[in-house]
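Pasting as-is:
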Amino acid sequence: MIVIVDYNVGNLQSVQAAFERLGQEVIISRDISLIKEATALVLPGVGAFPIAMKNLESFQLIDLLKERAEAGIPILGICLGMQVLFEMGFEMGETKGLGLLPGEIRPIKTNEKLPHMGWNQLKITQNNPITKYLEMDDEVYFVHSYQAFVNPQELIAYVEYGEAKIPAIVGHGKIIGCQFHPEKSGLIGQKILKAFLEELEEQK
């Protein structure tokens, strides 16, 4: 059972529909018992880092998500959901994240217009199951003004935006994050979600 975690940030139905197009049934829920039973979790998100963390706290999900990660349950973070996987965010002040990945979320440093919005080309830096159907320069869809600052070992793919090098896919072990929106990225986004689902099958 795959659960899309509902913490009142973003259009969860579009993520659900993207999985259903691949024939995968998913449940949208913040129910603690369902999250505990899930074989994988998807953490979407649109909006501001501190609001996301406040919502996760108010729904008593922070410790639960950490516990599930420590138990080896795969977690896929999308956009803001990727950002909160990190240790700290610096949007509207300083806010602790989930700490499932090392690194911080800070403003994109670029002379280009912000937010970074639209299609951009992936530069793949390492082999990972999530990228197995991707090719260099495949395009995916972004909407964000903050980016992750990560260790090289957690960087799976990035995009260039002016002088900025923006991590696009990050991860370590069973924790994976996409700064872009796979559910809005057409065929390439479907390939990423397909690879995620196939990895879940192999881990059974």
